[in-house]
Write the structure tokens for this entry.
Amino acid sequence: MRVFLTGGTGFIGRALVPLLQREGHTVVVWTRSVARARARLGADIDAVDAASGEAGLTAAIDGCDAVINLAGEPVLPGRWTAARRRALRDSRVGLTETLVRAIAAARRRPRVLVSSSAVGFYGDRGEELLNEASAPGAGFLAQLCEQWEAAACQAERHGVRVVLVRTGVVLGRDGGALARMLPPFRLGLGGPLGSGRQYVPWIHLHDLAAIFVAALTDDRFRGPINAVAPDAVTSREFAGALGKALGRPALLPVPGLALRALFGEAAGVLLAGQRVEPAALRAHGFAFAFPTVAPAVADLLSGTPIAIGPVSALPESGATGPGRDYLRRRRPAYALRTSMMVRAPIEEAFSFFSKAENLGLLTPSGMGFSISGRVPDIQEGTTIDYRLRVGAVPIVWRSRIVDWRPGERFVDQQERGPYRSWYHEHSFRAVGSSTLMQDCVYYAPPLSLLGRLANRLFIVPTLQRIFRYRADVIRLRFGAA
């Protein structure tokens, strides 16, 4: 299918795009910055500039088989001032109305519109068990969701099947609620919100992406779908699972009064309880990869094994290969090793990982990765200049490809950047119809005397974050064994 997507560069979109591509779909992204979309989503998308207006939107939708609408300003943080409420409505209701007008005007209309909504539709309902047939609740967020869904349903008048995905709290590695919760929990200062008795409808990001993909092709998906895991937990139980996974206490509640003082009415998003069940998904036989909270949290806090330790011996290329002079001049102190089985033939796997355009897709979005200037074709001797951030620190980096063996391996080394030494070997080996991909990075941190401390406190966690995020993208894009 040719799938038109809004909100593609956001938290959910960055997980959905590689999964759509894995299923063989072509993705057309509607974006305010074509360059940013390509930098974040890789080489294999089509990008359409939102500046082209409704005429350009209609032309882009014309001929697409499906539309997925993920766009919407974040509900948190921030107080719901009058201006903020207008922005929330415009980014949801207003944009959805514009999409439906473009669908109506298209000569070849899409067959399905899958539009985001939220379990905020139900309002604060305490312990009442809620399914897709439950009535809407009260309050600003419930009214907003009701209007949002009503706008999407107008597409039914033009012969389009409409699916309304009511998402819960989305748990992912690179953003969303979990990213905001982790800092205090890592310090042992985490705990339930308010009383802790309210239910928290949650879902793993990969399961949510799979729900959107299923809704495209399964005609049984129609109307509201509760995109929540079947394991209903309270805020106290959720905090306990997160604390246990981190090996930290999770006993310090955040008082509701403090949240209301900070967020005003918007604090209701954190304090409201919705005991939501995924009744429609259960009826359709949807198989959750993470139906219970403990394995979901464990997956997001650990992931692919990554070994980092002192260098015991230089690689063979350090003695006889193309990196020998570099590694002798800039002797590494540590080595990172990780491997992953990719469910793709070696030609396909090598092609994907050897495209410079895909580096941004494989890098956490918060690092702001972008290639400087023209994106080069990778071959031996190619240099790649790019920028990124680690925390608030901007970094300029130049890599050179010093070994290039298509279908087997390639090596890049840092010529300019934060490390005293950085030498990265990418190796590929066919295992049946899959590919064993192995990475070995030899590096020496900056700050020679303080390098060990910097490595333990900052560099190792950052490298683990990057490589585990990359493994998540690989799992979505290709599947992994």
In short: The chain has two domains: 2-171+196-233+255-295, 307-478.
